[in-house]
Input
Amino acid sequence: MALETARSAWELSSVNWEANIICAAIMSRHQKYEEAEGLLLCNVEEGLEEEQSAVSLVWLHYTSGNSAQLAQMLQNPRHVAIVPIPALLMCAQKLGPDELPECARRHLASTLTAVPGNHGGVSTIAVAGVLGWKLHQAETEISAGTVKFNYAGYRQVRNGTEVSFTPALRTAYRNELSGDLLLHLRYPSTPPIEVRLSRETVTPARTQPRFPAMFSPLIGSSHGESQTAQPVYHVSEICIEDLKLSFDEQQPVAQVRPSRVVAGDDFSRINQDAALR
Output
């Protein structure tokens, strides 16, 4: 009955993008993948809510096992950029590391960065991810060697989410971090994800201040500070179940990077964890 209703709705109108997506989902559940694809392609080709339709089309190819079409979709940077990262990683798992388009690999490598900080003399870590990571929806933990850091809070910024981590209870870690960072993420409906972040040393530029004057009491003057190298950690490896994606040492330009303010803030004033979990 639901399948026939979906077909009837398509025959009555093909320009209602919401109805097309709903009907495509019903057809997909009944394994009518070609009909579902036709509805979603209608949305994409006619410019009817292309973002949601493209994501639905990517997921249709994933669930139907159509690896060739899935790989073709992930060759388009616009499609790759709008697919949530956990879903993108599941698509990568379906394709395998050798068949994942380079476009998708470059995107994944550029979507997450971390910087160490200090709060009250105790080492902290700040992580910035693009909105597609949905960091505020995941249970997160990060470690540096044997030292574990727990989630302390987050805040949304224009291009993504910044998350702060502080040492686990009874581990007031005060030394400089060494080695790689391991970020563990657990989402409600996705296999556990582990991200390895490796250190790259970046020297800040003198000429372009990164913050407006209103932040100067917090971070000091950009002209008066010493120009010491700032450690930044970039994605070097992502693992999800049996998939391991390794990235070249020369990373693409990061889409987001934690600010120096968040790196030294334990988020105690804006922690929204209780409201979300």
